[in-house]
Design brief:
The chain contains ten helices and six strands. The chain is of the alpha+beta class. Among the domains are: 40 residues; 135 residues, no CATH class. The strands form two sheets. The protein has a four-stranded mixed sheet with strand order 1-2-4-3, covered by helices on one side. The protein has a two-stranded antiparallel ribbon with strand order 5-6. Strand 3, helix 1 and strand 4 form a beta-alpha-beta unit. Helix 5 packs antiparallel against helix 10 and helix 8 runs antiparallel to helix 9. It is rod-shaped, with a radius of gyration of 35 Å.
């Protein structure tokens, strides 16, 4: 399937320490550019997540954010008896020096640094859960990129259809336009050259005809149209190929414009360039 390079997905699950979340955001880029934002205590997860993402995404700038929303300390923390004993000893000494000082309240004790210790992360379980969440988020991301990719492919196909139709309209006019322009050019040559013989005029017209012949450009344009349609049908990571074909289409449209022997052909070339530019805008977002 054709995929877009833009998308967002997220997945989360509860752990003894709180809610573990994985977020994926992707935008268009020339190559695969993976950026990870992970807390230091979860940094060990990055190699596994990087491998999972690279196996499913081939192009685009993708930001992966992994974070742990800590649950309340009272729900998950444990009393550090050693720190509590030290605090009790300090409070006793202060009480001796300052007999009238108010005693510590329970809330003050619980907020004291080090009194509440967090439950350690189970590395193996956290790695397993993070990998599962990453796969879930990747499924969602790929699905959203595929849905948008189908729309982009449809938009590109519509431009190709419009260009085919425009060429089909103008192709029958090419011989007539060329003949009319040659007749006008012959008249001007005779006026400019005065007594020039018909052989000289015919030679000049032959040179012009070879330069103004657009059959080759029309053939190449139609060939490129077919290549775009085959590429879209084949699917996969085709963004770079479509971008290259779009450049070739633009090159042929420019040549067609420079050789145009009539206003109709010139207008056709301009319309083609507009449609090609619209196509390239869509192709820039295809993986």
């Amino acid at each position: 399937m054709i995929q877009s390079m833009t998308g967002f997905a997220a997945a989360s699950a509860e752990t003894p320490r709180g809610r573990l979340s994985v977020e994926l955001r992707s935008v268009n880029a020339r190559f695969l550019d993976l950026q990870f934002r992970i807390a230091d205590e979860l940094r060990v997860l990055e190699p596994t997540l990087r491998e999972l993402v690279a196996a499913r995404v081939s192009r685009g700038k993708l930001d992966c954010r992994v974070f742990l929303n800590e649950a309340s300390g009272l729900a998950t923390g444990q009393l550090n008896t050693e720190a509590l004993a030290q605090l009790r000893e300090l409070a006793s000494q202060v009480q001796k020096e300052m007999p009238h000082a108010a005693p510590l309240r329970i809330a003050d004790v619980l907020r004291w640094p080090g009194v509440m210790s967090e439950a350690p992360l189970d590395e193996a379980e956290t790695r397993r859960l993070a990998a599962a969440l990453c796969r879930q988020a990747l499924d969602e991301l790929v699905a959203s990129r595929t849905r948008e990719g189908m729309k982009l492919a449809t938009a590109v196909g519509e431009r190709i259809t419009a260009m085919r139709r425009r060429l089909a309209d103008v192709a029958p006019l090419v011989p007539q336009s060329l003949a009319a322009y040659q007749a006008k050019l012959a008249e001007r040559l005779r006026e400019a050259l005065g007594s020039a013989d018909d052989d000289r005029v015919r030679a000049e017209l032959a040179v012009f005809a070879s330069k103004a012949d657009v059959d080759e450009e029309l053939t190449r344009l139609n060939a490129h149209f077919g290549e775009v349609e085959l590429t879209l049908k084949g699917g996969g990571a085709v963004g770079k190929r479509l971008d290259f074909i779009a450049q070739e289409l633009n090159r042929e449209a420019n040549t067609l414009a420079s050789k145009a022997a009539s206003q109709e052909i010139s207008d056709c070339a301009l319309e083609l360039k507009l449609l090609i530019e619209q196509m390239r805008e869509q192709v820039q977002n295809i993986e």
